[in-house]
Design brief:
Number of strands: 6
Strand content: 5-15%
CATH architecture of the largest domain: 3-Layer(aba) Sandwich
Order of helices and strands: HHHEHEHHEHEEEHHHHHHHH
Structural class: alpha/beta
Strand order of the largest sheet: 2-1-3-4
CATH superfamily of the largest domain: Response regulator
CATH class of the largest domain: Alpha Beta
Number of helices: 15
């Protein structure tokens, strides 16, 4: 096992001593060490529930004979960061996320990784790390937020932008705006709509890096907890069989991801992110491919904001 570099042999007694300070046993250290890269945050609606998913993942890892070790990385909500100087922090955070996970995986010599993520720059950052490290891994995304309800109609985050204009033009009162604020984003999950976060969750599934339906189960449904537990079990199988991203993230898989994006009417930000993923995977995937695949692939799904 890769982790034996830090857990096996007389010379590694100091290393084992530090692991045992965490409460681990010799039996724990004889099993595959699975890094659980969690981007839980109290600052991001799409990430506020990831701790529960992490617990389910770790239960699955233990049940399948592995030892999970959870660590965190940063997460920025693009919706909160936009419209002010904070917007300059968003894209650079993608690179920091990729780099921080790479460093943890190398420092601890994990045998495999489970990535927990939901939103705009966090999923791409973790995809970049996955391809850069090329270790057995699986993604557990947080899932979409449910729509809110306001005056008998479904609403989402985008309706707040429209409402601001309506208030400024006198078509809506400030009181109504505040009522909409409280209704538009009803709880945990990535903002309801086929924006970057939900698009990237679907593309992770298209790339074969998460379990079926991982891109679409709503954040608050119990089925997502069950999927997280199954992913924890699955990573041990991937470690045993040495299934790594380089076997999955191929040129054909990237083409499939672009076609899924086009069919969904997904975010154009995926151009920026898939190019970065392709680079980390060592695949030449020029911008012209997006144009070619876009011309060939119909827009099939009637979803907000392009439906």
């Amino acid at each position: 096992m890769r982790s034996s570099l830090v857990t096996s042999g007389v010379d590694r007694a100091p290393h084992r001593g530090l692991f045992k300070a965490l409460g681990l046993t010799d039996k724990d250290l004889s099993r595959p060490l699975i890094g659980v890269a969690n981007s839980w945050s109290e600052c991001v609606p799409g990430h506020i529930h990831l701790n529960r998913l992490a617990e389910a993942v770790k239960a699955g890892v233990r049940a399948a004979g592995g030892t999970p070790l959870e660590f965190n990385t940063i997460a920025i909500c693009d919706g909160i960061a936009m419209g002010h100087r904070g917007m300059h922090a968003s894209l650079p955070s993608r690179e920091l996320i990729a780099g921080s996970i790479e460093l943890m995986a190398e420092a601890y010599q994990f045998d495999g990784l489970v990535f927990l993520c939901s939103c705009d720059k966090i999923i791409p950052g973790m995809l970049m790390a996955a391809c850069r490290l090329d270790l057995p891994c699986i993604f557990v995304t947080g899932g979409p937020m449910l729509p809110g309800w306001f005056k008998g109609r479904r609403v989402g985050f985008n309706h707040l932008y429209e409402a601001v204009s309506q208030v400024k033009s006198g078509k809506m009162t400030v009181k109504e705006l505040m009522e909409l604020e409280a209704a538009a984003c009803p709880g945990a999950g990535s903002c309801a709509g086929m924006y970057t976060a939900n698009t990237m969750q679907c593309l992770v599934e298209a790339l074969g890096l998460t379990l079926p339906y991982g891109g679409t189960i709503p954040a608050v449904e119990a089925e997502r907890l069950r999927l997280a537990e199954q992913a924890g079990r699955k990573i041990l199988e991937l470690v045993r069989e040495q299934v790594t991203p380089s076997l999955l993230v191929t040129r054909e898989a990237l083409e499939d991801a672009v076609r899924v994006d086009m069919a969904l009417g997904g975010s154009t930000n995926t151009v920026l992110h898939l190019e970065a993923v392709a680079y980390e995977a060592g695949i030449d995937f020029p911008l012209e491919e997006f144009d070619r695949l876009g011309r060939e692939t119909p827009h099939l799904c009637d979803m907000n904001p392009s439906g």
